[in-house]
Amino acid sequence: MLTALKKHWPEYLMEFAGLGLFMVSACSFGLLxxxxxxxxxxAIPDVLVRRMLMGLAMGLTAVAIIFSPWGxxxxxxxxxxxxxxxxxxxxxxxxxxxxxxxxxxxxGVAGVQLVAYVMREMLAHPAVNYxxxxxxxxxxRPAFVAEVLISFFLMAVILLVSNTRNLAxxxxxxxxxxxxxxxxxxxxxxxxxxxxxxxxxxxxxAHLWNALWIYFTAPPLGMLLAAxxxxxxxxxxxxxxxxxxxANAHRCIFRCNxxxxxxxxx
Length: 266
Hints:
Shape: globular
Structural class: mainly alpha
Number of strands: 0
């Protein structure tokens, strides 16, 4: 544990900052697009158009984090479900996974708290509610199923693209497009989380604990199922690294075989 912390603490801090910045962006655009006093909210009465804009903003935020120098170095998981999936695939050391998850949860809370400190009652307004993810009108069961499905498809795409030589450098773009699409279309069902730490960051400030179990279980389940499918179809050896962007000069702390991908015809 101490060896991992001593050697890899910069990556842990980058994961903390990555999800923290993602939540700052989510809260900021949530205020801009959903707070009733916002001029943008008043100018765009169509909720679907506002969701499309939110999706575009958060998709671009995800892409920016993945392609940033910090994201290139840490791998830009910024999601415990992603880290645990790569742990299952044998690409992440257990103590690195532990500290990544810890940093992601802390970053999610810190990002929301930072915006709450500045915006105060505006972020707490029921229309924004700390951008908390909650089940839609259909209730718990559809929300759970939806979270499993969107998480499954996201991880399936990440594994396929990041382990295909000619596509690997664009993994972040594929992930960002999916985030934007999901926010536009899926929010009314589950709130669109895929990320236990992202949901906890909002729930901590909003004191919303009633459906937290959905977002702690469905996203990891969906991503682990995608990993299982990938391994059965292509084999564990065709998972080369846990980074979402590897074509860079930054060090890699994972069990990495990315060089094999560059040499292969895959």
